[in-house]
């Protein structure tokens, strides 16, 4: 039974419009098809229909983490489920993982990470901009994962506080400047991830990953295409999101392979950032 | 420190070749670059280098759930991380979820689901073919999630045993035949997912979803493109996997909207499969 | 030197806006950056700059056939250069070819065909709707290829007038109904092409092609992605056209292969539509 | 009626295998389904069936320019029809055009260009490597367009011989080094095209285009996906070509816009390479 504070998705069959709503006694949800009182929804169940004051039906659906991160209050580009779903698998997240990210932005990725690490896991999220940490906190609160995330409002020019992190993700404009810091914070043999929108950034990131001896470097992009759902006219949608960003992954080696040109020197230790 | 029974990824910088290995005392891993004794790896750490008897280095990396499901012993098409990552988000899995799937196949998707529901969650996986349940059990055992999965070796023509499942996934050739059974087993307002390779299957599935009053129906496909990682020559790989399958998602409504043609009859109850 | 009646492309560096203009003495071209008098452009050369009355520069460029067909006056979906460029190659058009198409629509494809068959070639374009034949005539006139096209305003339920056409293209909603007519009009061993937006249409077209013994059947789609052109931030555009249509091609066989189940009967003649 | 010297496509329904063959009295075409004598094919018609000595049928089809360029004898990467079809439209080729390209390579693009400019058009193709000019000549001979192409075996460091070309295409590793030469050879307001495989090359080309005042710069890529043609199981092929190259286009301006930082100096003339 739905209670005050629950997060629901109101979905209209008329237009496919939908609203992500946190049930608040006394509140009203508007739409171009009419209004719905939260008090009328409280006490109903997921899957039921609420009608607007104009008689239009909305289905009460359980929101998904993917939809939530697409709809959060934001001041930055949000992460898309196509990307975050791949990230959590390639960074090998799971219940109990400890993960570190920079920067927080609107907190979408931190919410996904917190969702999947569970109550025994922990997310540490850095951002130097106070307003982003606050916004992300509020978004994490709303999704119910605030207690799993530690927000740190500072830059990482002097590195991360963490060591032996299970995974580390950089969502910053200049990730190449922090590959050393990431190397220091990450557990050996574990994965670093990055998201960058341009090819020029890929180029710089690849050079930095090589400098710090990261291995199993992968660069990829994901494209998602929706289809129209009329069974008599199945076809791709007319337009699609053509680009969100390129994903870069690499694994931390504990020791660099000996330089090819070297003679009889010992294998160097990896730089510590 | 790596111990017998641990699962590791051996990754060669020479060719990008890699092997997924479960450490077993007395065993040897072969490669075209030479052999490695498991006993030499036991006691080492992730991130370190093991050399073959011919002197070629392999890095010892922590395997990821995505890689694991790509490399399992299989007799069926496996799920790709690009697809499973989107599925777990749109089906809203997380630590503690109860999810039902049919069919088990080689168990790749069951392993991903079990990885993300954690020890407090539960996966029930149906397949009518005994050999697949056994293969999947063995693959789940190897990934360490066997205890989270209940394998049921029977068909679902008479429905699922479960009710109020958090999510349900159909990975069968004829999902349209089981939309009623899925409706019965799924919690109201929650999500059903399907993967089908052909358009003809999409067509039939969409008709069945409509018959059972499912809402928020989405059909999509994900394309993944890898890039070469030489920073001086960044470009997409020459070839790519162009198709794995189409994903179909829908939410269970508890009550069907009144048929448009109906006069003054009451809204019908949803069929129960 | 540009003369009255010439077709030019006015391209603004400020916004990337552009206009396709036919020079007409006394006319004025408006834009949000100000106005340009055609009389000022007449006498200039391609590649020069004309300034608006507000001082904004527009470059005078030579329009391309691809741009022209994208910008024609239209009442129907136009053909995209990515698709028409592939069509003319797979249908093997060239100077001197005789090609037949149905339906005319806004005439975009007929203009492309007429452009490439040259003055020694011939395009016959059918449409049952008078207003489309007129619109297409006007568009062909503007591009200067009207004399190469014969517009026929009638349906093709009773077939085409032509025989031994070098190539034939069907751009209609129900191409499967006209595969027989196409077979009759096309030269043996030559190519038929179709463009359909949905998968349901592909299904029906493939069945009809098989019934009439067409061979070397190919189904494909083309996706085009534009990139931003700032050399410091090279990246795909945020959105793209995700779908125009699927292309279907097949070659006409003069004789059907003997049915597999047949005993000792002679090979059947191909149906004649 | 097919004669000695004709180019035909032999297409097998059994496997979809096909051969591009120039009919030569006394010759034999082998295949894993048996052999076919050219003398048996001479005198037949396009669209008919020739049987191998083992009784397997091959259809005699008319080859297309797209297929031809994919199958030419080659020592270099060939152009794909998806790309060349877009190029000829964006460069505005047609019967009678004069076009210049560098480098010749195996001659595939020169053959496409020559096919579409017709007997009144002219293609000039530069390559500094004698063996490529010879190979391309032989390929052009076979397609029947040798007389429309002038092969020049020299580098273009000192520029092209031509002026006022209708279009110019650079298919070389370092196109940025020849943007000035291209500017000099091209007619004002007309189009330059390039094909480059890597992003690093796009970056350098964009800078050079800007230096020489080219306008309407466009960067794009084309992806082509084939589908399986069984009407009961319509689906994309499992794999596809993920990358051939990026296309870059730009139009030549006759006069550079005044530099933004300039004070009261006159608008500079464009550099002449």
Explain what this protein looks like in three dimensions.
The structure is a homotetramer of 273-residue chains. Chain A starts with 6 loop residues before the first strand and ends in a 22-residue tail after the last strand. Chain A has 2 domains: 7-61, Roll (Vcp-like ATPase, Chain A, domain 2), CATH 3.10.330.20; 66-251, 3-Layer(aba) Sandwich (Rossmann fold), CATH 3.40.50. The model of chain A is unreliable at 260-273 (pLDDT under 50). Helix content of chain A is 24%, strand content 27%. Chain A has 7 helices and 14 strands. By secondary structure, chain A is an alpha/beta fold. In chain A, the strands form 3 sheets. A 7-stranded mixed β-sheet of chain A has the order 9-8-7-10-11-14-12, with helices on both faces. In chain A, strands 2-1-6-5 form a 4-stranded antiparallel β-sheet, with no helix packed on it. Chain A has helices at residues 38-41, 65-71, 81-90, 108-117, 130-143, 179-185, 199-211, and strands at 7-11, 18-22, 28-29, 36-37, 49-51, 57-61, 98-102, 122-126, 149-152, 165-170, 186-196, 215-227, 239-241, 246-251. Chains A and B meet through strand 6, helix 3, helix 4, strand 11 and helix 7 of A and strand 6, helix 3, helix 4, strand 11 and helix 7 of B.
SSE topology sketch:
Four copies of one chain form a homotetramer.
Chain A: E1 7-11, E2 18-22, E3 28-29, E4 36-37, H1 38-41, E5 49-51, E6 57-61, H2 65-71, H3 81-90, E7 98-102, H4 108-117, E8 122-126, H5 130-143, E9 149-152, E10 165-170, H6 179-185, E11 186-196, H7 199-211, E12 215-227, E13 239-241, E14 246-251
Parallel strand pairs in A: 7-8, 7-10, 8-9, 10-11
Antiparallel strand pairs in A: 1-2, 1-6, 3-4, 5-6, 11-14, 12-14
């Amino acid at each position: 039974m739905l209670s005050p504070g629950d997060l629901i998705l109101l979905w209209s069959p008329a237009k496919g419009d939908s609203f992500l709503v946190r049930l608040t006694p006394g509140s009203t949800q508007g739409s171009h098809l009419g209004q719905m009182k939260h008090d009328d929804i409280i006490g109903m169940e997921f899957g039921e229909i609420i009608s607007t004051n104009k008689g239009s039906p909305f289905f009460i659906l359980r929101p998904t983490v993917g939809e939530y991160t697409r709809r959060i209050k934001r001041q930055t580009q949000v992460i898309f489920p196509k990307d975050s779903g791949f990230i959590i698998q390639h960074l090998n997240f799971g219940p109990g993982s400890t993960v570190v990210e920079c920067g927080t932005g609107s907190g979408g990725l931190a919410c996904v990470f917190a969702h999947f690490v569970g109550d025994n896991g922990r997310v540490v999220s850095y951002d130097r901009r106070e307003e982003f940490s606050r916004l992300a906190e509020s978004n994490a609160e709303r999704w119910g994962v605030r207690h799993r995330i530690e927000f740190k409002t500072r830059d990482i020019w002097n590195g991360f506080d963490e060591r032996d992190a299970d995974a580390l993700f950089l969502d910053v404009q200049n990730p190449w400047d922090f590959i050393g810091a990431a190397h220091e914070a990450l557990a050996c043999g574990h994965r670093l991830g990055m998201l960058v929108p341009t090819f020029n950034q890929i180029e710089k990131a690849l050079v930095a990953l090589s400098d710090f001896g990261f291995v199993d470097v992968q660069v990829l992009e994901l494209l998602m295409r929706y289809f129209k759902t009329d069974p008599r006219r199945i076809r791709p949608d007319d337009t699609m999101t053509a680009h969100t960003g390129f994903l870069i992954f690499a694994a931390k080696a504990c020791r660099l392979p000996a330089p090819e040109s070297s003679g009889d020197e010992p294998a160097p230790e990896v730089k510590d950032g």
